[in-house]
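Working notes for the structural subgroup meeting. M.R. asked for a predicted model of this chain before we commit to crystallization trials. I am recording the input and output together here so anyone reviewing the notebook later can reproduce the run.

Input as submitted:
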Amino acid sequence: MDQTFRDAMIAGYALNEPAVVLGSSMHEGELFNDVRVQVGLSMLARHGLIAGATGTGKTKTLQLLAGQLSKAGVPVFISDIKGDVTGIAAPGDAANPKVVERATSLGWPFVPAGHPAEFVSLSGALGAQVRASIHSFGPLLLGKVLDLNETQTSILALVFKYCDDNDLPLLDLKDLATTLRFLSSDEGKPILEEYGGMSTASVGVLLRSIVVLEQAGADVFFGEPEFEVEDLLRTTPEGEGVVTVLELSDVVDQPSLFSTFMLWMLAQLYEQLPEVGDLPQPKLCFFFDEAHLLFDDASEALMDQIERTVRLIRSKGVGVYFVTQAPTDVPASVLAQLGNRVQHALRAFTPDDADALRKTARTFPMTEFYDVESSLTSLGIGEALVTVLSPRGIPTPLAATRLLPPDSLMAPLDDVQFRAQVAASPFQAKYG
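Returned structure, recorded in token form:
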């Protein structure tokens, strides 16, 4: 059986092109360090999923991938909700006994390295400030942030159309509120009738939603200078990809806002980047942490936009990676587009957990080497079931994998280091 397993893994994972190495395959308690589980750089624009229960190692897997991508010259975007990805800018601790044990068990030479990183934030408190104009955000995304229903969102779309038709700027929430008040006034009502009209009650709902958002401090997220998404595509003079980290720990209580902001970034990338088809490596890999927040309470129109953006952005050279607890957090229409899968352990403490476990097991390729349901509950920290796309676009055999340790620091930067990194950023002068 060992030779049969080894042959299957070699056939699935041997590559003749640059690759990101994830770790070594495991079978029946044995590590196969001569069979590295890896994914070719050319396949990393085919999107992916990193999933698993809390504490199983998802963030470290993200850090491992981001570090290797950066070394290969691929820019990376990461959303950091807990503040524990800042260590990617500093070399890892070669004296850490867990790192030493993991690298030794995998026969892997551990070489600590930090990676070029830029820190940005929505508030401006934890990095250069990312802003968007209300106009470029659009009614669909803004409707999710304002927690509007579909009827209210359609009314918001009328307001946007009126502003477009009359070349009126919609830069921030004050512009939007002013426009709403005008259109609902005696002077504006005749104009509004041309666009289908809206009730005073509907305007009241929209204005109250704007006030709630302003009271939560979200008004600072909208306006100018607007973030230029081309800044996510930077490399250093030495050819390393810059890792842009969106720090979100200070706005964690506004999940619909920050998740929608990341979708805005993706939509801007899709609109602005040229078609490039298949490339030797991606132009950008975009990691969407706590991805379930994007899909929670999303309208049908917004879901259509998400699915369409993910499906089409691959041809722009952008790989999108959703990081979440279970594959069932991601709608089937989006999940079907995620070719590279790293599934950490799941826990089955409740009937709902058990149902999610069964559904997750059914999403993997058939395998003669593992009982997938059993494996999903018995994986250790830093271990995962992996299947990726081969250069021929075929899913590789499912491999239980012990993952490499990231070469960067597996802890947050201390505050002095972090503040120095932020202060030295060219983004500070550009965005403030």
